[in-house]
Design goal:
Two copies of one chain form a homodimer. The relative contact order of chain A is 0.09. In chain A, α3 packs parallel to α10 and α5 packs across α10. Chain A has 218 residues and is mostly helical. In chain A, a hairpin with a 5-residue loop joins β1 and β2. Helix content of chain A is 69%, strand content 2%. Chain A has a two-stranded antiparallel ribbon. Chains A and B meet through α3, α5, α7, α8 and α9 of A and α3, α5, α7, α8 and α9 of B.
Chain lengths: 218, 218
């Protein structure tokens, strides 16, 4: 298909597609004349993933490029590609320079990982972005004096574990390894607001159950 | 205590405290001379909450003001204040104008809430921000063609339910109702990166378990 049809079928304006092509987020089409290229279903799929990352997940262009590069890295096997791609997703704010609460947070997170038996993460010589995001969040809780001991964090880790199983079940519905990788990245990002909003709605339900017959916020 | 001591004990620069005072995020101190005011522990507590919302949670000043106003609204009972304050926390992107996927998302979310028996949420005449955030996220998944049927969402709702219990357990450790409300708002925001990072770490663990002996991202 030509650019105009790619735009129509993907719902992405041609100017935006050209921008993604220039930035290397979408691979070039097959050149058919000096000014025209031909695109296929792989381009449609890629545009869908780029929209999920950039428009919905607000992933910066440079980070999206890293994620997409990992998906195409032939030197890695399936599992390594998945880890690298999801690992390249941007994480929260950078750690503050408060060494005391940062060191305390590292000890807490290490104790949590040991208790969970998450050996893969413990064996890594370098912290993944998600690991750093966790340490930063725990350091902030520590600094502000909110509860964040290992036993406070454990229920959130158990929830994370159950969710990871659901996540991988969704991903394994896709047959080809390439589609699985794309789905892993897209669903990681797109299910985050699902999870956070369901937690808030459940809090309102639970708070209603515990504290009152009168309806909250009505 | 004077402003300088409030700054020292809270770790917030005096210029920032003055800004929060002007914006109404922190109540004024007790005026002792024409140029000096006296602050107390309630101001320290409030600064801690404002830091959690504004600096860590990146909540816009105007939304933070709404959240804090709900905490102090004497016309509401404890449970209503909690619901209103957490409900005033900003939510994700506004819904796009795609009516078809939005209507489909509403049907899916309503079916999910009915299946869960979350009556409090179903009985509300107006959607809360969290409810809108969920509909928007499901509409996006629908529009991009990713799985988001009721049975796909159910595991995330179950996780949200379990987390709400842990959240409320943490909050009930605080004795005074005012401190409980502050903790509810702060912990809702501060535990979001904890949850999202633990989900990503658990994904790496689960992916390692399912797909490979070789380590991801190494």
């Amino acid at each position: 298909m030509r650019l105009a049809e790619l735009s129509r079928r993907s719902g992405v304006p041609t100017a935006t597609i050209k921008y993604y092509l220039r930035e290397g987020l979408v691979p070039p089409g097959r050149r058919v004349t000096a000014t025209q290229s031909e695109y296929d279903d792989a381009h449609l799929e890629r545009l869908r993933l780029v929209r999920a990352l950039v428009q919905v997940g607000r992933v910066p262009i440079a980070s999206a490029r890293d994620v997409l590069a990992a998906l195409e890295d032939d030197s890695l096997d399936h599992n390594a590609r998945l880890g690298t791609a999801v690992g390249a997703l941007p994480h929260g704010p950078e750690p503050a320079e408060d060494d005391a609460s940062d060191a305390q947070a590292h000890r807490t997170v290490n104790a949590l990982l040991a208790q969970l038996g998450w050996e893969h993460t413990q064996r890594r010589t370098e912290e993944s972005p998600a690991h750093r995001m966790l340490v930063t969040a725990v350091a902030t809780l520590t600094r502000l004096g909110y509860p964040c001991a290992v036993e406070d964090l454990a229920p959130y880790a158990r929830a994370g574990s159950q969710l990871a199983e659901s996540d991988l079940d969704l991903i394994e519905r896709y047959e080809s390894p390439d589609r699985q990788l794309e789905a892993a990245v897209a669903l990681t990002v797109l299910y985050e607001p699902v999870l956070l909003s369901l937690r808030r709605i459940a809090q309102a339900e639970e708070s209603h159950r515990r504290f009152g017959a009168q309806d909250a916020g009505e």
